[in-house]
Design goal:
CATH architecture: 3-Layer(aba) Sandwich
Number of domains: 1
Largest sheet: 5 strands, parallel
Strand order of the largest sheet: 3-2-1-4-5
Structural class: alpha/beta
Number of helices: 8
Helix content: 25-40%
Radius of gyration: 17 Å
CATH class: Alpha Beta
Length: 230
């Protein structure tokens, strides 16, 4: 994943642990990184503030926030205030089913926005912090999905028709959460700025009980480190 130092890439950045680590890995790989966050009507919109901080602290060449209101996708706990965010689920429950925090087609929408900006920038590399090991059962965090999106990107764009080959990089795909934490520390990511929680308090502190918080806590515990965001 070593690129020429002038090669641009679009990196999806949510403000959480995974996307911050992905951003730092892209920069380490030599890409000129353009960070993209998406305001899709998520209840945990504080993550967008953290995303801007992460992009700046990691040294992204630019950072943009696109607005794409998905709040009418009722039934997802991340966009519908009437649907409670699950709390206190054990690790077996987290990995055994597609949870109510699933937002319909979210990664497809986010990657499509990243693809559009990539065409404008003349970039052919997209980065996403998808993880298929310690993940919450999301179907759009799988290797086969990402490879199919690459095919779509080539078929659906002017750049692809003219011969460009798009690549969707998911460097965390096969990492455990503990390994992701270790990589973030190695790369010097300011983890105190990151926010993984689905329902943080008014003071910005993570709830500690949602799936994202529990997976993050296990990662730090298994890495033998304390979470500086707590």
């Amino acid at each position: 994943m070593i690129a020429e130092r002038s090669k641009p890439a679009v990196v999806l950045v949510s403000g959480g642990l995974d996307s911050a680590t992905t951003l730092a890995l892209a920069i380490e790989g030599g890409f000129v990184v353009h960070a993209l966050s998406v305001d899709y009507g998520q209840r945990h919109a504080l993550e967008l503030e953290r995303a801007a901080e992460v992009a700046a602290s990691c040294g992204a060449a630019s950072h943009r926030t696109a607005r794409c209101d998905l709040s009418f996708f009722s039934g997802s706990a991340l966009t519908d205030p009437a649907t409670p965010v699950p709390r206190g689920r054990d690790e077996h429950q987290i990995g055994s089913e597609i949870p109510v925090t699933y937002v319909p087609a979210r990664n497809t929408i986010l990657l499509s926005l990243a693809l559009g900006w990539a065409e404008v920038l003349g970039a052919h590399d997209l980065f996403i912090g998808a993880n298929a090991v310690d993940y919450s059962g999301y179907p759009d965090c799988r290797e086969e999905y990402l490879r199919e999106f690459e095919r779509l990107a080539t078929l659906a764009t002017r750049a692809g028709v003219e011969g460009a080959t798009f690549r969707v990089h998911a460097p965390l795909l096969s990492m455990t959460k503990a390994k992701i934490v270790q990589e973030a520390v190695r790369l010097g990511v300011d983890l105190a700025r990151t926010l993984s929680c689905y329902e943080p308090g008014d003071d910005g502190r993570p709830c500690g009980e949602c799936d994202a918080c529990r997976l993050r806590a296990r990662g730090f515990r298994e890495a033998g480190l304390e979470d500086p965001a707590l």
